[in-house]
Amino acid sequence: MPRTSGGAGDGTAIADGALLSIGAVLSRLRDEFPEVTISKIRFLEAEGLVEPQRTPSGYRKFGPKDVERLAYVLRVQRDHYLPLRVIREHLDAMDRGETVSLPGPGESREALDGSVEALEPEQPPELRIGREELLAATGADDAELESWESYGLVEAGRDGGYDAEAVAIGRLIADLGRFGLEPRHLRAVKAAADREAGLVEQVVAPLRRHRNPQTRLHAEATARELASLSVRLHAAMVQSALRVRLR
Description:
The protein has helices at residues 22-29, 38-46, 64-80, 84-95, 105-113, 116-119, 131-138, 142-150, 164-177, 187-208, 213-245, and strands spanning 53-54, 60-61. It is mainly alpha-helical. The chain is globular and about 65 Å long. It starts with 21 loop residues before the first helix and ends with a helix.
């Protein structure tokens, strides 16, 4: 990856192109990024931001360019709060030999002095649908929807409408119902989701209370990243538990 301003700096270079284990990469990165973890590196790999080699036994091996890419991702996340989608576009452009521009000191100061609204991209209005539309989208009837709501699996907003997540949840509940799983069986799933959401909220709460609007925006990105990791961990644990039980 070409060197650019904001790219990996000194301290992450690897002599003679030697390959490093994920633990060795972590040690190198922690000099500049003390908060980085192995889980974070694996998450960035899963998001396609770095592609380490694999040994025949499946162990990750990182080369000099891999470490540079990781340092670049961590640096622009820390200094510019760029979302991973934008960072991925930067990396793709740099791989093509293009120059990537990052916000300068003046722009960063201007953002710090501005409001949260000035920093946030304009968002389309949230999708809201009515009860009949939700029933049509999920294939459920009134009695089934009432059952979902009674167990707290689906919840209408204050305006009586439902968001896109309610549609997705409803469809999954309906799919599980075809295997004989009823809403009462899914209370444990709901409870686990609430606990995981509470854990994420606990981690990002200090960031959300920060006076710096950029830090508060960073809290949202962190929450999304933690949620993604939590979902993947939950899925992996379910698969692991099933392998043990079905042997």
